[in-house]
TrEMBL record, chain B:
The chain crosses the membrane at residues 12-31, 96-119, 131-154, 174-192, 224-249, 275-300. It comes from Streptomyces poriferorum. InterPro entries: BPD_transp_1_N, MetI-like. It is a multi-pass membrane protein. Keywords: Cell membrane, Membrane, Transmembrane, Transmembrane helix, Transport. Residues 94-297 form the ABC transmembrane type-1 domain. It is found in: Cell membrane. This is ABC transporter permease. Belongs to the binding-protein-dependent transport system permease family.
């Protein structure tokens, strides 16, 4: 019966297929629990090579957080910067700092950490030749303009403001007074680097060596990284688990599916489409806590029609025309909080967050909003276009909702429209080349939990991320004054005074504070997110 | 035959240059990729300028293309933005996708052709109608629906498979994704075979073969099927290229780090080196598959051999 053999063959193939998958489906992660248990966690492919001063996004930052410890560390609960590798940081004038490094710390390859480990790393990070995307973090240090000129080639290879005093001490001279500067040193860009980084750079990048609670056991670029507890880690924040297996997912929906199927322990980015189900799927294993991220609408001040006295009223009116409460509830399922200042709740009251600082200008009021916009001469050009990138982040939904809210207030269906841009790169290049003449979606993710970080890099004249080119002398001088203040409370309140200038000028419209959201399996406990919305990996316990 | 192959190979050259140039231009039109590298903040101008010159983005497009093609012929496909060689990316992505494609083709051939033969020989019977309706259903449902549904049912609800494929992507984990990738083509293969078989079943040579007293299975397999396979082979051949490039959706759903995933990332990050490199290889695969199809004709039907 040769005719039938084919059918038989097919039947066999299907049977084999089902059998094979059945075998494949049996074993699920797990393994030994307790302090040696391994936690599996979702990951995204880092955009840049893993170097402390070259990593500017969350995925690479996660790894640096596990394998590096710097002079300071931000408390995962309060965000307070506490000394980690720093024995002491002293200053008399808020401009010259002397930093003493704690004795007894080593890299995981046994090399001792000295002042030189920091000086070399910082000089490397600042030097233009090395293409480090976070180089501007060293911009406050004297001599930065020599090693990293805006155009042309560097005329020096080391920062003149950075000097090694002795084995464990080095001094830093800043270009300006900056009292909160020591608190910025918890940022990964300021991490120390071992000699191996400089002598065999390619090998280091393929398997980085740091000084944090974990060491990298296996790194397959683009697909996974296995981190293991470093038993000799000298810090007091030792890992509570045996290690973390990071798995790159092509889509965060798949990661979420894997979590619900029990193949994954931790997802630190719950996809927007699952927010409706997350409570029923995970119950109290779902985390939704504030993160240091604020989303805003920015305006082009290089365009004269937005830089008028009338336009101020228009912007204030637009801000009042946005029903933040409704949008955060319906579109974001409460994973955003309506913003009423330009910072973030993670700073806390002492750190400079002030709920309601923006006042009525950031509160929905349809009648008043319409009046303000009309008093200001109407929307420049007759229509507000809000540009956003359509490829990631599901921005379309909320941009449409914001426009809807504005249109309703104006009683005009065409008062506001969304203007999608295909890719993030194209969107960013349009923003940075000042091609946009309407509003655009903007956001700020903090580098360190300081009010300074929410204001100076984004709104100070010609600051690195002041994309709209807003400038205001009063704001600038208040920021300068705040930076020179040696008393922290006073510095914070001066920064808030600068923020009040923003209420009167409304250079950008604050929309909402973004939360970090995560979900975890029944295998693990003690999962939390820090202020950067990164899981506090070393505290996770395996059942 | 030899001249025919050579002519076909020569035809590949302009196609190869044309497609790569087109892709190169398309990626370039999308704008400045460096702007996306620094996240929501602006890259500082000096670093951006340096990165641009490192990736050759500061030169005119035609010059970029020439340098790029020059490098390609020495086996250098450039570097992706994350510092990895594109050839390295290919070395990890292509084996996985090839495996997935093989699984898909296997299903197409085994299930598709056998269903086609069965229904073609039993036209109008209940089994024929059932299969026809089934294939219609499969064709009309988009692959991402089938993919997500199977993932949810088999992976989450019943726990038969793992919802995501591990990074090594062994064959047994690729069976369900392979089935999903193959599903639509499989339905077409079934229908093509069915029609072709039904048509040829009434041909003179089949009647002759039957009249000679040959056993039925020999008539079906040796005479009827061999002649009826020509359109099917054409379809499967061209499908190889389509499957490799078009698995983007399925690869995303099942977390397969293959060609589709790398292409998707390359496009999102506007990394022309990755995109052009991968597409170049895909074009080559497509051309090779077409060539093989043409050569297979000659095997199936000697009359085509000297054309």
């Amino acid at each position: 019966m040769r005719g039938a053999t084919q059918v038989k063959w097919a039947a066999c193939a299907v049977a084999v297929a089902l059998a094979a998958t059945a075998c494949g489906g049996g074993d699920s992660g797990g393994g030994g629990g307790g302090a040696d248990g391994i936690v599996s966690s979702s990951w995204g492919d880092p955009q840049n090579p893993l170097e402390p001063a070259n990593t500017n996004e969350v995925q690479g930052g996660k790894v640096l957080d596990m394998i590096f410890r710097g002079l300071k560390k931000y408390d995962p609960k309060t965000g307070e910067a506490t000394n980690m590798l720093a024995e002491k940081i002293e200053t008399k004038d808020n401009q010259n700092f002397t930093i003493t490094v704690k004795d007894g710390w080593t890299f995981s390859n046994g090399e001792k950490i000295t002042a030189k480990s920091f000086v070399d790393a910082w000089n490397y990070g600042a030097l233009l030749k090395n293409n480090q995307k976070n180089a501007y973090f060293f911009g406050y240090i004297d001599g930065y303009d020599k090693v990293h000129p805006e155009t042309g080639t560097a005329s020096a290879t080391t920062l003149s403001g950075l000097k090694q005093v002795n084995d464990m001490t080095f001094s830093v001279k800043l270009t300006q007074k900056f009292s909160l500067w020591p608190d910025t040193l918890g940022y990964p860009a300021f991490a120390p680097l071992p000699k191996a980084f400089f002598t065999d750079h390619a090998a280091w990048v393929s398997k980085p060596i740091g000084n944090g609670p974990y060491t990298i056991d296996k790194y397959t670029k683009g697909s996974s990284m296995d981190l293991r507890k470093w038993d000799d880690y000298p810090g007091d924040d030792k890992a509570q688990n045996g290690g973390i297996d990071l798995k790159v997912y092509t889509d965060n929906n798949t990661a979420y599916t894997d979590l619900t199927a029990g193949n994954l322990d931790l997802v630190d980015d719950v996809p927007a489409s699952q927010l409706k189900n997350v409570k029923s799927d995970l119950g109290d294993r779902y985390i939704n806590t504030p993160a240091g991220i604020i989303q805003t609408l920015a305006f082009p001040f290089y365009d004269p029609q937005w830089n008028t006295a009338g336009a101020i009223k228009v912007r204030q009116g637009l801000s009042m025309a946005i029903n933040r409460e409704q949008i955060t509830n319906q579109i974001f399922q409460k994973t955003r909080t309506p913003a009423s200042d330009w910072t973030s709740p993670v700073l806390g009251e002492d750190g400079g967050f002030k709920k309601g600082l923006c006042g009525k200008e950031c509160t929905y009021n349809a009648a008043e909003a319409k009046k303000m916009i009309q008093d200001g001469g109407g929307i420049p050009g007759g229509q507000l276009k809000i540009s956003y990138n359509a490829d990631t982040g599901s921005h379309k939904e909320w941009v449409d909702a914001v426009c809807n809210s504005i249109n309703k207030v104006m009683g005009n269906n065409k008062a506001c429209v969304g203007a999608p841009v295909g890719t993030f790169a194209d969107f960013r290049s349009q923003v940075s080349q000042q091609k946009l003449h309407g509003a655009w979606r903007a956001g700020w993710q903090m580098d360190y939990p300081l009010i300074q970080n929410f204001l100076q890099p984004v709104y100070y004249s010609n600051a690195s991320s002041n994309d709209g080119k807003w400038n205001n002398k009063q704001f600038d001088s208040l920021v300068n004054k705040a930076n020179a203040e040696s008393d922290k409370a006073k510095a914070v309140s001066t920064f808030q005074d600068a923020e009040k200038v923003m209420v009167q000028q409304m250079p950008v419209i604050p929309l909402w504070y973004q939360n970090g959201s995560a979900g975890y399996s029944e295998n693990v406990t003690n999962v939390s997110l820090n202020q950067f919305s990164v899981p506090v990996y070393e505290q996770i316990k395996v059942k | 035959m030899g001249r025919y192959v050579i002519r076909r190979l020569l035809q590949m050259i302009p196609v190869f240059f044309g497609t790569t140039l087109l892709i190169f231009l398309m990626v370039n039109v999308m704008g400045d990729p460096i702007a996306g590298l620094c996240g929501d903040r602006q890259c500082d101008p000096a670093t951006a300028a340096q990165l641009r010159s490192e990736f050759g983005l500061d030169k005119p497009v035609w010059q970029q293309y020439l340098t790029y093609m020059g490098n390609v012929f020495t086996g250098d496909f450039g570097t992706a933005f994350n510092g990895q060689k594109v050839t390295e990316l290919m070395a990890t992505a292509f084996p996985i996708t090839i495996r997935l494609t093989l699984v898909a083709i296997f299903f197409e051939i085994v299930i598709g052709i056998s269903l086609g033969v069965v229904t073609g020989l039993r036209r109008g019977r209940p089994i024929d109608t059932t299969v026809l309706i089934l294939t219609l259903v499969v064709i009309s449902i988009p692959t991402f629906v089938t993919g997500l549904l199977l993932q949810l049912l088999l992976g989450v609800e019943w726990g038969v498979i793992k919802p995501s494929v591990s990074s090594e992507a062994p064959l047994n984990e690729l069976i369900i994704p392979g089935l999903v990738v193959a599903s639509v083509s499989l339905a077409y293969v079934t229908r093509l075979t069915r029609t072709s078989i039904a048509e040829n079943a009434r041909a003179d040579y089949v009647r002759t073969a039957t009249a000679k007293g040959l056993p039925r299975r020999r008539v079906v397999v040796r005479h009827l099927l061999r002649n009826s396979l020509i359109p099917v082979v054409t379809f499967i051949g061209t499908d190889v290229g389509a499957l490799m490039g078009g698995a983007i959706v399925t690869e995303r759903i099942f977390n397969i780090h293959g060609v589709g995933y790398q292409l998707y990332q390359g496009i999102l990050r506007q990394n022309s080196q990755t995109v052009v490199g991968f597409v170049t290889v895909l074009v080559l695969v497509f051309l090779a598959a077409n060539l093989i199809v043409d050569l297979l004709y000659a095997v199936l039907d000697p009359r085509i051999r000297y054309a």
